[in-house]
Design goal:
alpha+beta; binds zinc ion; 20% strand; 9-stranded mixed beta sheet; binds adenosine-5'-diphosphate; 3-stranded antiparallel beta sheet; 16 strands; binds magnesium ion
């Protein structure tokens, strides 16, 4: 029998606020263990949470950018469970009245072609938990509460995703939107974007959903892809051998490429949700929402269309550049400095992509002055450095954020602007290569190329081939 994959994603994203959701501790990643923690986020009795307004703004922004309805009157609820990374023994979240509902993101339909909408069931605000650190050396488990109370949005899709490719594309598009809106840096390897992947299968053409399993906290695109594929296969094999799928939470082991059962699926009742009595309900005004709507940035799809139209960039280049806000920022700044969107795109698609690939660096981890690429291109176009040098300088910028101007000086890469000095150098080449000169005058064209090669070498590539050719011709008469 043929089967269809059905997949729904719950994506958690850490918000790029300076402080935590209910206290003023920093949200910064890293830091000494338990140094970003206070009595509120550590859940001490008698403390009271106060909502960080920035979280609200980011949630509304994200909802509007994903076509959601905003719940003008929304509330926080307690999700109760005990686990050592959660010192309060409850997580403040939103169950009954989440801040956003009924949105969608458009992706390519991998089954029928064309576009399709993946509906968003809801987006809610909640706090993150701490982190358990399993210490192999002393055979014990430690806990770091720095992450407790870091604000999260949970973005819950409907089960509208039909393949591993679609799951990846949905998360890619969602990530781009979150980054464009500036609500999250979405660094997957730091856990600031992670997905719970729900998968079920059903006979092709059926409309009755099968029993699903959920794989928690997957934090790379590759892992999302293989989790959907492998879980589909595992479920089909079970059904084909006459067994039933059990609804359960499974752990995806990316190193092994398989999932294994963690626990049977819990549902809302198990958490004994109730409205949080410490936080007042949130009532938004029309003006608050429309102000955020009016300030939304240009979103990926709109930007893509504009780039293709305005700058005549190819669809492929445009998609690549628009896929990450970090490329977009570099592209726009470089185009601004050089006045040439085309050059900007070419350098990003060529040299930059090459360095990113070779060093396995993600765009969000690029770490150089955003003006440097534009400045290098301008120096190249102004004849100050050769194309080879420009590439070398950019590599140094990419690797260690050097100042291009200083690097060029220190490495003596400036092109010679003094024509008489170039002339001197070529005259010595002529003097030292009388044989070739005679051959050239006797009609041997190759000898001219030889003399150019010698001259370029003498000038150590610091004069343009065009100029050298011109001067050599003049000197040879
Ligand atoms: P819970 O809150 O218990 O996790 P939800 O109904 O909210 O359950 O669903 C959670 C996620 O599971 C959603 O992203 C949803 O799209 C997805 N989902 C629900 N049913 C299925 C199914 N049969 N197959 C695949 N995914 C599903
Ligand atoms: Mg769930
Ligand atoms: Zn705190």
């Amino acid at each position: 029998m043929e089967y269809s994959t059905v997949c729904g994603l719950e994506v958690h994203t850490e918000l790029a606020t300076k402080t935590k959701i209910f206290c003023s501790c920093t949200t910064e990643f890293g830091g000494g263990s338990n140094t970003h923690v206070c009595e509120i986020c550590a859940g001490m009795p008698g403390t009271l949470p106060v909502l960080n307004e920035k979280v609200l703004e980011f949630a509304v922004k994200t909802g509007l950018a994903t076509n959601c309805e905003i719940t003008m009157y929304n509330k926080f609820d307690r999700k109760n469970y005990f686990y050592p990374d959660l010192p309060k023994a409850y997580q403040i979240s939103q169950l009954y009245l989440p801040i956003c509902r009924n949105g969608y993101i458009e992706i390519n339909d991998s089954i029928n072609g064309g576009k399709k909408k993946v509906r968003i069931h809801e987006i809610h605000m909640e706090e993150d938990a701490g982190k358990l650190v399993h210490d192999e050396w002393s055979d014990c488990t430690l806990v770091n509460y720095n992450r407790c109370g870091v604000p999260l949005l949970e973005i819950v899709s409907e089960p509208d995703i039909s393949s591993a490719d679609e799951a990846v594309e949905y998360v890619e598009r969602l990530r781009a939107i979150l980054q464009y809106c500036g609500v999250s840096d979405c660094k997957m390897q730091e856990g600031s974007l992670r997905a719970d992947v729900n998968v079920s299968v059903m006979p092709k053409g059926s409309s009755k959903l099968g029993t699903r399993t959920e794989m928690k906290n997957i934090n790379s695109f590759k892992a999302i892809h293989s989790a959907v594929e492998n879980e589909t296969r595992r479920q089909i094999d079970l059904i084909e051998s006459g067994e039933k799928i059990v609804q359960q939470t499974r752990r995806w082991d990316d190193a092994r490429g398989t999932s294994y059962a963690m626990r049977s699926k819990e549902d809302a009742q198990d958490y004994k949700y109730f409205p949080d009595p410490d936080l007042p309900p949130v009532q938004l005004s029309e003006k608050y929402v429309s102000d955020i709507k009016n300030a939304l940035p240009e979103l990926p799809e709109v930007k893509k269309a504009r780039y293709m139209n305005e700058f005549s960039l190819s669809e492929y280049d445009t998609s690549m550049i628009c896929s990450s806000v970090y490329f977009v920022r570099l592209f726009e700044r470089t185009a601004e400095i050089t006045g040439s969107p085309k050059d900007s795109a070419n350098w990003i698609m060529g040299e930059l992509m090459m360095h990113l690939n070779e060093s396995s660096t993600l765009p969000e981890n690029m770490n150089f002055n955003i003006d440097s690429l534009g400045n290098i291109i301008n120096m190249l176009k102004g004849g100050k450095i050769s194309r080879d040098s420009a590439k070398k300088v950019f590599k140094a910028v990419f690797d260690s954020n050097v100042s291009p101007e200083q690097y060029i000086k220190e490495n003596n890469m400036e092109m010679m602007s003094d024509t008489s000095a170039i002339k001197d150098a070529i005259e010595s080449v002529i003097a030292e290569n009388q044989k070739a000169v005679a051959e050239y005058k006797g009609g041997k064209a190759q000898s001219f190329n030889f003399l150019i090669g010698q001259s370029m070498r003498a000038l150590r590539g610091k004069a343009s081939a065009g100029e050298v050719t011109k001067i050599l011709k003049e000197l040879l008469g």
